[in-house]
Amino acid sequence: MSLQVTDLMVYYRTLAGDVKALDGATFSIADKEIMGLAGESGCGKSTLGNSLIRLDGRMKYIGGKVNLDGAELPIWDNAGMNEFRFREVSVIPQYAMSAMNPTRKIGKMIAELVESRGTQFSEIKDELEKRIDHVGLTQDVVNRYPIELSGGMKQRMVMVISTLFDPSLLIADEITSALDVSTQRAVAETLVSFRDHGYVKSMMVITHDVSILYQIADSILIMYAGKLAEKASTKTIIDQPRHPYTQMLVSSLPEVGVRYADKKLTGIPGSPPSLLVPPTGCRFRARCPLAFAKCVEEPPFVEIEKDHSVACWKVTGPNA
Amino acid sequence: MRRYFGRKLLTYLMTFFVAATIDWLIPRFMPGDPVAQLVSRSNGISPEQAKALVDYYTRLFGLDKPLPVQYLNFWNSLIHGDLGLSVYGHGTPVTDMIMAAVPYTLALLIPAILLSWWAGNTFGAMAARRKWLDNTALPVGYVLTATPYMWLALVLSFVLAFSFRLFPLSGGYGFNLEPTFTWLFFTDLVAHWVLPFLSLFLVQFGGWAIGMRNMIIYELESDYSRYLEALGAPQGLIRKYAFRNAMLPQITGLALQLGVVVSGSLVTEIVFSYPGVGHLVFAAIQSNDYFLLQGIFMFIIIGVLLANFIVDIVYVVVDPRTRVAMRGGTA
To answer: Model pTM?
Structure first.
């Protein structure tokens, strides 16, 4: 068991009150697993990803535990987390295109970064060169400034930097969002190859694009309005989703061979609830076609079969 | 690289041409007749004598020729380093008068500009990371930078020179001294220098400190800082990067500020009767002295353009993005 998250709660402090962006998440990621984390905007998926590596100023840790390879991550303690960051947990940020210091040559920036973490640059130099080849960049990239690279090149460079210390968990946050479809595929394949080469042990790929996850993820976790909705293997999520939200999300994806001029692609009617004052019970019930009396109570996130968990009264039965 | 500097140089030459032309125009469109003013200083002369004097001075200053010829003559003598004769100085060459005043102005300006820039940036960077310093320094900085140079100069001279008598009130050195290479003269020079320097330094210091503080905070919120934090880099490294990048706009700011500072030094010198270029401008205006005014403006134009050109070069050295832009980029 690589990562074990138990009842993690992280809120945003705002003037209007706490926004309950992540309200009790319990799941695990196995060694070598690439877990996709999907959901619509504002469902708390990025909050979950960020909270595992760095809480920014507005985020407030409320409760829960995070255990990585048997050690508890002190995610509430910004200074205490430093020792785990980069070496154990690392991130490819959403803003990979602008993640490198514009006024430093890339090689010098990497050297200063690893040396600030107590490792001599010479120790990782060979590995760095190997990985630059691996992602298809030329070795002279270390003598260039970030502005001299294209967006895709910068992204690949950041992927190399983030995984230099072979972290146990890599969080990839919306990294394909700003790319065109062919580049998306290349980046997705690079992520898988990083796992296969052992550059990272397990991975959490955050995206709103379920089709990307279909290509690379071993399992998918679906979130809705700050809560976990369903987690199962990719095949199960795509072919036999149980949670009504997952079902509607998956059915709203376009299919190969269907002409959408004839059959209109459907979405999910309605919009997610405010997380400032979330509704009691199941948060999806206002938009759920299957909602019934029991849904005013909060459904537990339970395992209905091996490696398949769902939070829905219709699936688990009212007596669960 | 050569094309970049070639283009820059051309821009500066064109700016110089336009500025010099305007410089030539301004005094000629000013109301008042400088020759008549000069003649009126000679008391007790008959109208005939006065007429002869007017003729003499008009020819001496080349004012009898038509304007286009005067303009060409202006460029011709400018190229030969001749800025004409001063009416105020009773025929002393303008170049000599400016050269006598320049050391005072430079001794005032260069330390004031560079020290305030250095101190303001350092202080601003410190304020960005300490809450209590930020809370006290920021309002003071805003007040300082909003203060007009000459008002601060008046306050300083009133409080420190007039009330407490810590420093001399005006002049470049004591009236009882002759410029010599002695310790006594030197200390007296420094004592006269302190107040004009302070009034220039303080105003600029406030501006730099606020600018730096805001830039640092902006840089610390930027993506590359967040990425370094996510990778557990120590605050020292992140701040070092933020400071370096925040310096870039400050260097541009220095170039823009130069012109403002020069005019600031003019009024400061007038307040303290400091024998620099600013004081000379004042005198030139009061006595309708075309040539002197024109010469001083020319000197300021050259100074500001030169300083900007130096900043351009410095920028190429410190910001890799300028170098990329020069090559046309490879991205």
So the answer is: 0.79
